[in-house]
Amino acid sequence: MNHAQTLFTVFFAIFWSSVDKAWTPWRPFHWPVALRKEGGPVLRRSLAAVACLNLLPVGTAAWTLWLLEDFPDTIEGGLASWIWVCVAGIMPAFSIFGFSRFWLGLVEAWPDRFYLKREALSKLGLPASCAEEEVEPSQETLRLHCSQTVGKADLISGVVYVAASLLIAALVA
């Protein structure tokens, strides 16, 4: 791997890890509940998460590594050359934030498709002693009843974030 590819790989991993921490209360990959007969919205959420938070980022990473394959590996010209390598390697790594924003916008815009309401959640047969936040969050817990308009804006900003990051990668490579 050349310098730009190495920078991309390191920063993509760091950014992906930091975004992963923000998903925790949303439980995007909640397979134990998703695979229950009554877990339709949770299954849809888990499948959307696989697409938005796993498959698309992995595809983007592969494309970016391929795009940066022919980036010059010799650094001549001092500071300006190093800045150019950093821009080429680090800027496309920011795309992971767009995928996260897109997934969040998806579940915010259509909460009924991805999260159960408190009443329906109680019918899943989960132990009553478990707090809602510890097992499966409800629409009420996540306050999704007041975020549908924000969700559509998050969808758009996620797409713009990914497109801008990848456009910069294509232009500098």
Kindly describe this structure.
This protein is mostly helical and 173 residues long. The chain contains nine helices and no strands. The longest helix is centred in the N-terminal third of the chain and has 28 residues, at 40-67. It is elongated. The protein starts with a helix and ends with a helix. The model has no long low-confidence stretch (mean pLDDT 86).
Structural class, by secondary structure, is: mainly alpha
Shape label: elongated
Beta-strand content: under 5%
Can you give the helix content as a percent range?
Answer: 55-70%
- Computed Rg: 19 Å
Distance between the termini: 14 Å
Low-confidence stretches: none
Largest sheet, described in full?
A: none
Put simply, the count of helices is 9
Mean pLDDT: 86
Strand tally:
0
What's the SSE pattern? Answer: HHHHHHHHH
Core attributes:
mainly alpha, 173 residues
